[in-house]
Write a structure and sequence with these properties.
The chain has 25 helices and 17 strands. The chain is of the alpha/beta class. The strands form four sheets. Strands 11-12-13-14-15-16-17 form a seven-stranded parallel beta sheet, with helices on one face. It has a five-stranded mixed beta sheet with strand order 2-4-7-6-5, sandwiched between helices. A hairpin with a 2-residue loop joins strand 5 (about 220-230) and strand 6 (about 230-235). The longest helix is centred in the first third of the chain and has 17 residues, at about 5-20.
Length: about 575
Amino acid sequence: MKNAEIARIFEEIADMSEFLGDNPFRVRAYRNAARALFDLEDPIEEIARGGVEALEQIPGIGHELAVKILDYLKTGRVKKHEELKAKVPEGVLAVMRVPGVGPKTAKLLYEKLGVDSLPAFRKALESGAVLKLPGFGEKKRARLLKSLELVEAASKRWPLGAVLYEARELLRLLRELPEVEAAEIAGSARRYKETVGDLDFLAATREGAKVAEAFTKLAPVKAVYALGPGKATVFISPGIQVDLKIVPPESFGAGLQYFTGSKAHDIHLRKIAQQMGLKLNEYGVWRGDERIAGASEEEVYAALGMDWIPPPMREDLGEIELAKKHALPHLVRLEEIRGDLQVHSKWSDGKHTLEELARFAAELGYEYLAVTDHSPAVRVAGGVPPEKMKERIAAIRRVNEKTGGRPYLIAGAEVDILPDGRLDYPDEVLKELELVLVSIHSRFSMDEEAMTRRILRAIENPFVHVLAHPTARLIGKRAPVKADWERIFTRMKALGKAVEIDGYYDRMDLPDVLARRAREYGLLFTLSTDAHQKDHLRFMELAVGNAQRAWLGPEQVLNTRPLGELLDWLRGIRTG
């Protein structure tokens, strides 16, 4: 899939064009196209087989951009991109990617201070040189320094959802090699960690050297770093490292266990094996020279006297002790999810009509889907004004009448929590909605006490059901808000309110650590995608993965409940 590859080129064209003072409408067109391509689920190569007309059906792709996509797929180049790169220093692009900078500020930094790289930017910030520039003060300097630290950290790790689907395509191609008997993604991606530093693949075969060499020649591979008879290391778009390990088929389960668990989990298992007079490695469980287990993960764990442990739990946080007692929890599974509880339509910043959303939900086998368009405070999202809410609710009900409520569209809203804790809709609007999510989209840097009071006031509203993407973080772009989560979770439990795990790939919010704490407080959860177009609905897998990392069972997740039970719960919040 070249979706992300082309998206990044278009994003760079937009950045460089704005840096050079190009037409803002043209800049916006490239940004919209980049977003559309990055979110696209189908391989752009397949769509491009239908020519320019097929590409023009993608939201945000016009004729000119469709032609550029075709040119890139044929030549591996975009002429406009190469022309701009000759005019803009490469390091300036990296500076523009720092949150809070942007092309205009980057241009000022470059022209006045010669900032042409991230190290040069750090030096300008730390030395205070930026304070000589118009619009720069101490607060902005400190904020940009924190943003730079985020970018530098993020450059070492990728949000899982940004690379998982490319990894799946590479896995499919690996499995198609005739010599491969089994293959799987391992490592932190299999544990559904929110970010990954690289990708680990495992293959079972009798012809290791042949498979390793063939792997380096698969289409997604951009560069080969190392190649040997039992392994290979390559780089794929967007530049992420992939390590392939190869084992014989009788060791596939042992290898998968070995290369999936966290370091702490694996060390703990090896100590248990030693205490039992055994040896555990990637080739099996051994008693002397005899391999007593290895073909499957289940038999590896059984040989150590425990149940198979789901990959997202393999962090050495008590799961091994539970597995030995045969007391592991039943984790929520993707197939148990009956509907998505945060989706946006054309009524705000979504790409699809209500009818289209109902059709997509039906295709997924959902019983229901909550349409939760933004309130008006999020201006860039085109939030629904209060006076339009009754019209919007009526439109949702008409769709339900047409479909017979299969699936049922829940009339909801994502309502902004204003800085003082008031909500962006008055109570007379909130009471008309079936589902009210509240969330933060502004003033992220408030101190902990002020932010805690802000959130507490919002959830005290009797019409509120769910605190959505609670920390408001964006992975690698915006740090989580500071709040006293113990106070918040304690009050939410007393009020019977639920907390969301937003599976959108750069949110993954609540983060798994906080989600575990919320579970310990006995809170109920909703799992959502925050979808703004059809392709985003696939992020439910990430929400479920995060829930599994928090050890959540289906009974703790509201959207595993049948529609009738869910609606009863929603009404029950308001009646006490």
